[in-house]
Amino acid sequence: MVVRIELTNYCNRHCPYCFFNDQLTMSPQEMSLEEVHRILDYCRKDGLNFVFLQGGEPTLHSKFKEILNLLKTRNISYGLFTNGIFDTGLLDYFDTAATSDIVLNYNHPSTYSRESDWELVNRNIDEIVRRGLSFKIGYTLYEKKPDYQFVLDILQKHGLNKLRWDLARPSGKYTNKYFSLEEFFEMTPIVATFMKGVEKYAGLQRTDCPIPVCMWFAEQLDFVNSKVNLSPPCGNGLNIGPGLVVRTCPASIEIKDVRLTDFQTLAQATDFITTCENRFRWGLWLLDDCKNCIYRVTKECQGGCLGHKKAGSAFSIGRKELEEYLCAVPSFMEKSEDIIPDYTKQADDIQSILRHYIGLYEGGKRSVFLTYSIGRCYEALSDYDEAIRWYCRVLDRERGHIVTKNRIDLLYHIKAVKCNPENKQVWNRLLQALIKLENLSSAKEIIKKFDIKNIQIN
Prior knowledge:
The chain has helices spanning 33-46, 64-73, 115-131, 149-158, 181-186, 188-199, 266-281, 294-297, 306-309, 319-328, 347-362, 368-380, 384-397, 402-419, 424-435, 440-450, and strands at 2-6, 50-54, 77-82, 99-105, 135-141, 162-167, 204-207, 228-229, 237-241, 245-247, 254-255, 316-317. By secondary structure, the chain is of the alpha/beta class. It folds into 2 domains: 2-275, Alpha-Beta Barrel (TIM Barrel); 343-450, Serine Threonine Protein Phosphatase 5, Tetratricopeptide repeat (Alpha Horseshoe), CATH 1.25.40. Helix 12 (368-380) runs antiparallel to helix 13, helix 13 (384-397) packs antiparallel against helix 14 (402-419) and helix 15 (424-435) crosses helix 16 (440-450).
């Protein structure tokens, strides 16, 4: 669960691609210190010790220094999403231990209205790096022929090994500059060239939001490995704005007249939003390829941005949906949906997808990701030996495909627990193999699917 505190709804830039564009046209508002205190009280109740600060531009908040000191006093670590246009002296208030991550949105120098702003952004980057604060550049591709050399230059200059990038997504009311879902696929050659350039400098690059997995079937992207966070579904995030209004991603569904105080915990608020979003996330598919996709079955791909999915829909949620949700959930800690798919109920579907993939492979399409995906089908069908054989074919093509190595390791550990179901050490080794592919909480949930004896693992 990620809590994003929107300290302001105003900004000192107007990036054409910003998917907060609709909110930035409202009358300027900022969150009160009392509201920040209230959110942190919720964090304590949920056992959460991390929040993300964003806006608008969060550093414009009139009491931003006090907020940083408050977070330090409350032992809350924080991330910050900023455009970098702030007084360099503000960095004196950043706690190296508490600042978990700064994401600085970096734009082409020609887009800054004043040359002094471009110089200030770069001066702040110099100082952030000098102080050893956890930091990465954020960059959004929004033009069909982008000039991104300046991004590669800053990565090289400071030896930065992380980059968050993305293709421009629609704002809630489609008022910004963004790529349609069809244009995402048209951008594949540009994305491939860009990623190869980044790979020379950044050891880890990730997209900010979901990209349809089928984009990675293109042979131009065969070099992609675990250095790239391929296409996780969005969700499990909660945005809280001034007035404690509850929101989700600006590209997603509109939420009206719902506040944090309507919920007993942050977990409950997050689950409410996720439950509502899932109507689009798992109930609407825009691409023909979604039908024959193993990642739809495993719920690793949602078929693109929710902003694309809800295009033309006036769907919004408000008090009515909130009341229905609160009446339907007997316990506010109860999750609305099991996030781990039951493959045994979908075996026929997976067999059909496997036949489709094999047909493509035998027809001459031999991309690394297609080969890997065939292995994923056999894995979902619990045919681990055949899955390993297909994963080995991936490594024959791309020895550096780390995620494939991790899956092979995982399958050998699954085979081991089936042979030694009462050996606790074997179960712990399986958990460690899963953590290379999943976060800890998801890994433990997946373990339960195998652990019929309910062995307690660390």
